[in-house]
Amino acid sequence: MSRPRIVIVGAGFAGYRTARDLSRLARGRADITLLNPTDYFLYLPLLPQVAAGILEPRRVTVSLSGTLPRVRLVLGEADGIDLDARTVHYSDPEGGGGTLQYDRLVLAAGSVNKLLPIPGVAEHAHGFRGLPEALYLRDHVTRQVELAAAAEDAQGCAARCTFVVVGAGYTGTEVAAHGQMYTDAQVRGRPLREGMRPRWILLDIAPRVLPELDERLSRTADRVLRERGVDVRMGTSVKEATHDGVLLTDGEYIHTRTLVWCVGVRPDPLVHALDLPMERGRLLVDPYLQVPGRPEVFACGDAAAVPDLDKPGQYTPMTAQHAWRHGKVCARNIAASFGDGEARPYRHRDLGFVVDLGGAKAAANPLGVALSGVTAGAVTRGYHLAAMPGNRVRVAADWLLDAVLPRQAVQLGLVRSWSVPLDTASPELARVPAGARHGGGAPAMEQPAPGTGGDHPSPGPVKRTDTSDEGDR
Fold first, then answer.
1. How does strand 162-166 pair with strand 40-42?
2. CA dihedral angle for residue 212, residue 213, residue 219, residue 223, rounded to 10 degrees
3. Are 410 and 142 in contact (CB under 8 A)?
4. What is the pLDDT along the chain (473 residues), one digit of tens a residue?
5. Residue 195, Cβ neighbours under 10 Å: how many?
6. Are strands 238-241 and 245-248 parallel, antiparallel or unpaired?
7. CA-derived radius of gyration, the chain
8. Fewer Cβ close by (within 10 Å): the C or N end of the chain?
């Protein structure tokens, strides 16, 4: 009897955990293939520290082939799934393609930047879902402060050192907190014009920072942000974005060259082409993470609407914590589908949340105990070290070096603005110019627009229409 073929699409929190646990359960008795655009698992919660120059990019990436020895890695993006033929077609990084056959399919494609129909946002804002976006933001912020210090007019200086972050969930709050510290450190050695300092503005239509968390954590984060100098504005968002600034919903126009879009996420567009039951943009599954009517298809992570058995009628939120636990249950239930063990429904117990606010500051509530200050900072970093599937020593070493040495505020110019558009189905990949791939096989949609020059956004990314309104990760 041939060994069962299992194809896992996506190596985010859910896909990576599924592959890791399933390879241990199968013990070589199944052919497990992991299809992913990159050869690494990205530990997203530490991405703001990459943008702030605390961690080097490779610290938050974990090698798939190095940590999943019994899993076959295929580099590529799924662009078509035939449920009846049980095949997945993919495009590889060099313009080629292939087809994978499966007996069990796991859809763990994750999520992309959430879009809203606000004029100018798709053209002038940048998201924060992948490593290229973090590297771009670090270069961009560094460059703006350097240009501001050399600016001859006060208005130009003020615009360049004003940074607007939209979305006060986990990501936006951490980006603003780390960003203010990073730019403040940058101008200590090279002051701006007299009376000026970098200005970070955090916007959200919600009534408070971190609206999805306990109010005590929200108050802690709000206090730390304001003490650090972040301009926190709740009940306010962007009405229109332009090259020179943003018009807010309260009528104020802010001159800025930086708009960071952290309003939330939407499921990967891949699942919409399957003609299967959906729930607010996510693939509907049963408590065992199986697609109704398709018992050979499992879905987990941000792409799946998983029933919350403790809250009837609701679904688990799109968070890394849930995605990681989905992966564990998914692996167990796939093994059970082949007669190894017993399938179990997905249930979760809230272990609390941690929000890194930079330096020694954080907000955390492990097991429901609200913490702040140095204690919360220690718990937060301890949690991340425990949760990371690799690179723990390297991450701890970078934290130690950051505590005793000044950060290197330099721009490497590796990622340009047009290569990380907000409207993309692949935030983990930077777009490349035509001809840069082997054999010149880059698609035309990945070319920079003629005349855009170095760091200006191209006007022509392919648009997706999905605007799922799920909350921030």
1. unpaired
2. -80
3. yes
4. 589 999 999 999 999 999 999 999 998 899 999 999 999 999 999 999 999 999 999 999 999 999 999 999 999 999 999 999 999 999 999 989 999 999 999 999 988 888 899 999 999 999 999 999 999 999 999 999 999 988 888 999 999 999 999 999 999 999 999 999 999 999 987 788 777 899 999 999 999 999 988 899 999 999 999 999 999 999 999 999 999 999 999 999 999 999 999 998 888 888 888 989 999 889 999 999 999 999 999 999 999 999 999 999 999 999 999 999 999 999 999 999 999 999 999 998 888 889 999 999 999 998 888 898 899 999 999 999 999 999 999 999 999 999 999 888 889 888 999 999 998 888 899 887 655 544 443 333 333 333 333 444 333 333 333 333 333 33
5. 6
6. antiparallel
7. 22
8. N
Q: Give me 403's structure tokens.
A: 């505590």
- The sign of the dihedral angle between the CA atoms of 209, 213, 214, 220 is negative
Cβ(164)–Cβ(259) under 8 Å?
yes
Helix (H, G, I), strand (E, B) or coil at 48: helix
Cβ-contact 211, 218 below 8 angstroms: yes
Query: In whole angstroms, what separates CA 48 from the centre of its chain?
Result: 10
Which residue from 6, 121, 105, 18 is spatially nearest to 330, judged by alpha carbons?
18
- Contact in structure between 429 and 441 (CB atoms under 8 Å): no
